[in-house]
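Bumping with the actual sequence this time:
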Amino acid sequence: MCYKGNNLERGFVMISATWVLLWLFFALIGWAIGSLKDRGIEGLLWSAFFGPLGWLIILIVTSSPSPKTTVVCVSCGHRVGRREPTCRYCGFDFRRNPLDTKFSGD
């Protein structure tokens, strides 16, 4: 790209672009960290507003899943969302064996 302007304007554009890319990088890392804890959007927002401090917040603050919204997989024993069709840890299909699932609220 050919940008016509004085050196001060070019420097401002480069600095602005760098900050935007850095902000996007922080937000995406926060989303990735939050996704590991099933809180991707929260991780993205915390990191977008607070940068690396948002990473720490999403890592430290954990919310335990509600017993009414989770199911214990009979194959591996991990808790997964009640509406998920398969276990994300072992691949057990709840649709084929709905009677085998143990609801954690019971």
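The tokens above came from a reply further down the thread. Residues 91 and 100 are 14 Å apart (CA to CA).
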